[in-house]
């Protein structure tokens, strides 16, 4: 989930709307026919099948219904499609795979073998296994998404498949009070198309259909005990976008490479920008420079809080903020064929309770009720309108807007570059451990 450059810092940025190239626009996907895509995962009918109510059967004493010996349900050892098996069953005793572990360099090289740093690492076993579990869930769900997402699907269907898979793999449906706080979605599944870079997800009734020509950013979070893995990728079906995607993937990897203890975020931004902007992309006969979107940033992650206090810019700046031992960062970069600058656009879907707002007296009773629902089910984790719908809430918009206006809840509107442009995103979560940097969400896909 993207963080935005704070407004006063933005004033220092020069906005250059004079785009060199003027692309023919990708129209927002028109509303189209629903395509029902019934993919069932339930294969556990074996438990209740045999021998119920055979008592009253007429005649034929000979034909006694044979009671099937109750099969002991074995723990599955492989994942289903779509994913439905808890990863805690696939990896007994919390033996989750590690992320990519990268040794520190220069004056921090000693840390990998240092006795004291290794001891500190060993104090973090729960933190690490929660993080590795969340990361493994992210990988399994996104790899299924990469295989299965096709033009013609509705965005609603795509989002719900991803979100329901995440919930199944954590073993927490989030339907009972407080369950979504134990483990589940770390933030809503963003499905932002074309010129929209971030924070779009369908609200109820949305009929948008993914098109062959679309470039879609899939950005979702998985949390286990509040340890949020934030990772994103971009889907496109046409090869004309390859260079755009390549630029952003390499820029994100450059940012990950530069990250480490004592690394200054402004310098990391410079390396990201240099990598990103060494690319151009030809789309339908027009060549565009790939620009870093300068008012979007990576960010640190705190327990139950997706945006901490540190930002990781994706353009060069003199921000001297340092990464420190124990930090968790989402390194995400966005490339664009447009202005390289996003604005709020379209209907809001994403919200989160503001972590640092104290008690406010609410007059509107619907706002009070809704705040109670948010407190119990999400705390400070981001949620979207669909998550309120599935909890059985309705007619909550007035209350929700009142919470936003009183500053208790923050709205995260979709962030879009100029119409007709294309944007791409790749993102990983990294742990700045005492001994090594662990790219926790790394997979063989990206
Ligand atoms: Co993020």
Automatic annotation (TrEMBL):
Bias (Low complexity) ranges: 18-31, 48-60
Residues holding a divalent metal cation 1: 219, 230, 427
Residue ranges of the region described as Disordered: 1-91
Cofactor: Mn(2+); Co(2+); Zn(2+); Fe(2+)
GO biological process per UniProt: proteolysis
Cofactor: record remark: Binds 2 divalent metal cations per subunit. Has a high-affinity and a low affinity metal-binding site. The true nature of the physiological cofactor is under debate. The enzyme is active with cobalt, zinc, manganese or divalent iron ions. Most likely, methionine aminopeptidases function as mononuclear Fe(2+)-metalloproteases under physiological conditions, and the catalytically relevant metal-binding site has been assigned to the histidine-containing high-affinity site.
Protein name: Methionine aminopeptidase 2
Protein species of origin: Metarhizium acridum (strain CQMa 102)
């Amino acid at each position: 989930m993207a963080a935005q450059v704070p407004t006063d810092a933005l004033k220092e940025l020069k906005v250059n709307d004079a785009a060199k190239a003027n692309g023919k626009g990708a129209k927002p996907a028109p509303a189209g026919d629903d395509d029902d895509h019934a993919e069932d995962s339930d294969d556990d009918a074996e438990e209740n099948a045999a021998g119920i109510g055979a008592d009253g059967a007429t005649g034929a004493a000979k034909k006694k219904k044979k009671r099937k010996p109750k099969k002991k349900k074995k723990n599955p050892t492989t994942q289903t499609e779509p994913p439905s098996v808890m990863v805690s069953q696939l990896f007994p005793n919390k033996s989750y795979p590690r992320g990519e572990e990268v040794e520190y360099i220069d004056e921090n090289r000693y840390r990998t073998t240092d006795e004291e740093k290794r001891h500190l690492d060993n104090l973090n076993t729960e933190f690490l296994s929660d993080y590795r579990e969340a990361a493994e869930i992210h990988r399994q769900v996104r790899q299924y998404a990469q295989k299965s997402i096709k033009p013609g699907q509705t965005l609603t269907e795509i989002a719900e498949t991803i979100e329901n898979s995440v919930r199944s793999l954590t073993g927490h449906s989030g339907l009972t009070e407080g369950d979504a706080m134990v483990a589940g979605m770390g933030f809503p599944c963003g499905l932002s198309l074309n010129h929209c870079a971030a924070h779009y997800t369908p609200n109820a009734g949305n009929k948008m259909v993914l098109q062959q020509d679309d470039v879609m950013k899939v950005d979702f979070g998985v949390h286990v005990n509040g340890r949020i893995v934030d990772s994103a990728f971009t889907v496109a079906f046409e090869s004309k976008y390859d260079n755009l995607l390549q630029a952003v993937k390499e820029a994100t990897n450059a940012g990950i490479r530069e990250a480490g203890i004592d690394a200054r975020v402004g310098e990391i931004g410079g390396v990201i920008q240099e990598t990103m902007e060494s690319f151009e992309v030809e789309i339908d006969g027009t060549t565009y420079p790939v620009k870093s979107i300068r008012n979007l940033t990576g960010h640190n992650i705190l327990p139950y809080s997706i945006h901490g206090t540190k930002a990781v810019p994706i353009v060069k700046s003199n921000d001297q903020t340092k990464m420190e031992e124990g930090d968790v960062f989402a390194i995400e970069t966005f490339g664009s064929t447009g202005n390289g600058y996003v604005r709020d656009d379209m209907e809001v879907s994403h919200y989160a309770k503001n972590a640092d707002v104290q008690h406010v007296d609410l007059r509107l009773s619907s706002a009070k009720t809704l705040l109670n629902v948010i407190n119990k089910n999400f705390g400070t984790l981001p949620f979207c309108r669909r998550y309120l719908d599935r909890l059985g809430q309705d007619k909550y918009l007035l209350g929700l807007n009142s919470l936003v206006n009183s500053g208790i809840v923050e709205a995260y509107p979709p962030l879009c570059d100029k119409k007709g442009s294309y944007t791409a995103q790749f993102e990983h979560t990294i742990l700045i451990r005492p001994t090594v940097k662990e790219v926790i969400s790394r997979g063989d896909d990206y």
